TrEMBL record:
It comes from Aeromicrobium panaciterrae. It holds the Pfam family Glyoxalase. Gene3D superfamilies: 2,3-Dihydroxybiphenyl 1,2-Dioxygenase, domain 1 (3.10.180.10). Residues 5-123 form the VOC domain. This is Catechol 2,3-dioxygenase-like lactoylglutathione lyase family enzyme. InterPro entries: Glyas_Bleomycin-R_OHBP_Dase (IPR029068), Glyas_Fos-R_dOase_dom (IPR004360), VOC_core (IPR037523). The lineage of its organism: Bacteria, Bacillati, Actinomycetota, Actinomycetes, Propionibacteriales.
Length: 123
């Protein structure tokens, strides 16, 4: 069996400059850029790669990145104050902030500029 060092995930965007600005300026994460790709630092030596696909990019219809927090409602309100719009899904019991509670971990979803789904989820 191969020995995997540090597995990581990745997803595409149509515009890495726009994605970098969003993740740094709005979400508040550390982002490094190399070889035309972004490396979003998730802490504890974990990261996700964001790669450009330009016009060939199609947003994922599922959550590509989960951001664990201690207080989902507080995080949602902070991000909303920075212009993030949280998604509302039919049939999902979400509160006035867009947070679904009581159906597993507290969770809320938003899309980044390229349309991929991101969640804020209780740690």
């Amino acid at each position: 069996m191969p020995e995997f060092r540090r597995p990581f995930s990745g997803f595409s965007v149509d515009d890495t400059a726009k994605a970098r600005s969003f993740y740094v300026d709005v979400v508040g994460l550390t982002v490094n850029e190399s070889d035309g790709m972004l490396r979003i630092d998730l802490g504890d030596d974990h990261f996700v790669i964001v790669y450009p696909k330009g016009d060939a990019h199609e947003p994922a219809s599922f959550t590509v990145l989960n951001l664990p927090v201690d207080d989902v409602t507080a995080a949602v309100r902070e991000l909303a104050s920075r212009g993030v719009e949280f998604a509302r899904y039919d049939g999902m019991p979400q509160d006035e902030d867009g947070v679904m509670k009581g159906q597993g971990p507290d969770i809320a979803w938003f899309t980044h500029p390229a349309g991929n789904v991101i969640s804020v989820i209780s740690a």
